[in-house]
Amino acid sequence: MVSIAGLERLRIFRILGILLATAIACFSIIYFSIPIQDTQQTQFDVILVLGNPAKDDGSIGAEAKSRLLEGIRQYQAGVAPRLLLTGGAVMNRFVEAQVMMQFARSQGVPASALFTEDRSRNTIQSAFYAYQLMQAHDWTSALVVSSPTHIRRASLIFSHYPLAWRMDAAPWPPNFPLWKWLWFWTSEIGYTSYGRIFGFPNAGQYLPHTHFSVPRL
């Protein structure tokens, strides 16, 4: 026979379970309803590859390599005539865009098809500086390449710019740890959902017009 105290604990656990399930459902709707494109076009002025930190020895990191290989694949398929690689020196002294450019050259991409943005320290700044460079070259459209968990946050950021853009999710690196995969999805859903509702806390001058948009179901 279950005691009254036991029944009370069970009731509390059920309430907490319902609240947790409701919160997960709400965050998932807010996150997964973010559009990952604002155009139907299949040809673009540039393929924009968002950076990721290099290894401490200066070689390209696994995620950056995966993103760049996807960008090169799209370039070779004729989606755009050039690649724009973004990212400054964030986690160590190596500039992400420069490391990616060196790897792209090793894969046969000509220097004339490679452009870099090497000042940014996060995705918001990458979009800001990349847009400035695109304006200088009269480029108005971009295929934006990033990791699967990152494309919706990038979409939310690029939606503030008058560009025709579409996101392209690069595959995960080989043997990517399950714990890291779970952590990336959990943290991105939480942070991006927060950013969609309240704006990104690190936006500053780089993303001045943050606003909430009601999810489209």
Describe the structure.
It is a single chain. The protein is an alpha/beta fold. The chain has one domain: 3-Layer(aba) Sandwich (Rossmann fold). Helices cover 45% and strands 11% of the residues. The chain has helices at residues 4-32, 62-76, 96-106, 123-136, 151-158, 178-198, and strands at residues 46-49, 83-86, 114-117, 141-146, 164-169. The protein has a 5-stranded parallel sheet, sandwiched between helices.
Q: What is the arithmetic mean of pLDDT?
A: 90
Query: Which class do the helix and strand fractions yield?
Result: alpha/beta
Largest sheet: 5 strands, parallel
Task: Please count the helical segments.
Answer: 6
Which fold name is given in CATH as the topology?
Rossmann fold
Q: Give the end-to-end Cα distance, rounded to a whole number of Å.
A: 46 Å
User: Radius of gyration over alpha carbons?
Assistant: 20 Å
- Secondary-structure element order, N to C: HEHEHEHEHEH
Can you describe this structure in just a few lines?
With 217 residues, the protein is an alpha/beta fold.
What's the topology here?
Layout: H1 4-32, E1 46-49, H2 62-76, E2 83-86, H3 96-106, E3 114-117, H4 123-136, E4 141-146, H5 151-158, E5 164-169, H6 178-198
Parallel strand pairs: 1-2, 1-4, 2-3, 4-5
Helix pairs in contact: 1-6, 2-3
